[in-house]
Model the fold of this input.
Amino acid sequence: MRSRIFLFFIVLLNVLVFAQDVDVTKSAQTNSALTGYSSSSAATEREWEAKFRDLPSPDVIRQNMQRLSAHPHAVGQPYDKENAEWMLALFRQWGFDAHIETFDVLFPTPKERIVELISPVKFVAKLQEPPVPEDPTSGQTAEQLPTYNAYSADGDVTAPLVYVNYGLRDDYDELERQGVSVRGAIVIARYGGAWRGIKPKLAAEHGAIGCIIYSDPEGDGYSAGDVFPKGAFRPSDGVQRGSVMDTDYPGDPLTPGIASTKDAKRLPLSEAKTITKIPVIPISYGDAQPLLAALGGRVADEKWVGTLPITYHIGPGPARVHLKMTSNWDTKTIYNVVARIPGSTYPDEWVMRGNHHDAWVNGADDPLSGMSSELEEARALGALLKQGWRPKRTIVYLAWDGEEPGLLGSTEFVEAHLDDLRRHAVLYVNSDNSGRGYFSVSGEHTLEHFINGVARDINDPEKNISVWERARLHRLAVANDAEKRAELRNRPDLRIAPLGDGSDYAPFLDHAGVPALDLRFSGEDEGGVYHSIYDDFYWYTHFSDKTFVYGRTLAQAAGTAVMRMADAEMIPVSFGDMADAIAHYTHELHEMVGNYQSTAKETNLQIDEGVFQAISDPEQPTSAPKREDVPPFLNFAPLDNGSAAFTTAATHFEKAVTAAEKNGGSAFAKASIDQLNQSLIQCWQAFLDERGLPERPWFKNMIYAPGAYTGYGVKTLPAIRESMEEKNWKEADAGVLQVASILQQSAEQIEKAAQQLDTLATDSK
Done:
């Protein structure tokens, strides 16, 4: 009991120190001109930024999208390369030093696909999306990749069908209680709940021999709104393509950890860990309905029921399904466009901006809504170059290829340039698909104050208030408790979400330790054409950002972020925000252990009391859950001490920033600021552990990682959190020590930077 009280006071002290010291300095920062700038350079910067924000044109963004989405352009298709060469010519025309960097990657395409119901009735799935007369590019059938899931294993299987809801861990636990096994079966799961690659992964782990994934109309079909072409949502025969690569590492499955150059040593296909163990095929809800209607067995629980006009049964049988999937396992060339503006003062510090240009089909929304805006940013920066502007840091604009199959272009680039990125990169700004609505920011928490400042300076095109204020008011409207509403009214900055996976920021943050931001607009243009032939120029100009004014606003926001980071004398970071986040994540881990313990005790008690036996329906019996071992008390003291040390160093740094901002911020204009900036880059690198995560060593960042069983979803302090979720308490204990060591070394590096800044501030008095 004493140890628990001691841990409680450590956490409490951590929070109080941060509340007393950091929040005060954060308020001071909010009222300063620009963090990291002397007053004279801040005034100049604001002038250039204002000129920049006047330049992006909605009409040009529209033209960019129309050109880039004119034909399907998946990896290996001719128009994919044509687009890269067209963008290369534009960057050069605008004054960038630009080139195309190629890699050779494994990219399978379908050879044969069959999904057919063979009993109790016959039905053959169409596995094809029909063209829509109103939509001209939907008819480019000869150029379209078929509906499939990339990196599915080859297989030809026939077996009873079992419906597994979303196909996640909780779903399989429920099936076990109901006495339903998927061993030797083909499962059918609906899209949603987690990344699609988790579904065949878990199905195989539970003994299934095949997997079908379908889009239920509940999420993105007629239950959500009118279907295309009348409305924005998925029609009956619409199919979501996508990768099902496992979560061990992104990039080329055959070259983990090394760049997939022509001479790279490649794994045999049989040793590639990220290829699924069983065949998997996506289908439409039109094709899914006869399969699901043929199922018998137990009626699905209400939480498992979609909105097809059938009774949802679980099976197994009497439905039996034949599934066949084979691919051409070819190597294809991908084309990354790399364009630079050299820095005038700190050329060895890089500010990077990227978006991908490949798509599953025409891809107007995903990714060209973001790529078209990025190009317009670059054109505007080129115009500033002609007016005499020169960034202090080197700016690098990137157009990635191969994002859709598995972050291929960005991952191979990061692996090829890893040492240079760790020494020189200060920021990577990403966007992907973007539409209408509210400014959405996710990112590394040291950038929270920085991006809040940018958002305050960008005008919402339809409301005549800043995108920051509109986002705040939207959060206020949907906040579900008084504490959240109070924070939104009183905290100087809006919190940003941590980054998981799902776009090209992942290799920068998770493997190279480069701080990243992901910027988009969303919330007012929902639809259901994701990864289908209907994600094209016609759909986007009828149902999303029709006038491209939010595309212009995205260009203004991302371009301003790039300029502001590139021109600052001191890299504008806030370790106070990171300390706040780490303290919060540490507190969550404390609560998780307590929740696991109380849940296990209560479950075991109810088993002893006969609760589950009593409530089991004799006609449809369910078994009691398995008796659980009550989790041990973890020794969080090293983690709490690491978090406290991090907070102390962050508080010192924030105070040092406030002191340096006095006297017009003359401390930032000192020549030795370059040494401080190098120390700040090393602060980010201190979040990395070269051993990586247990069983996933490619992921080096000890603060953030995508979940092994969630994919897109982030796991914070992942070496601890994921082990706890796996109930591997020995590994969780080791994770505590691993993360605590990282926090201590990060605190030492931040303390070093704070002392350097103290010296600069003292010398400027």
Q: What stands out?
A: The CA atoms of residues 305 and 312 lie 6 Å apart.
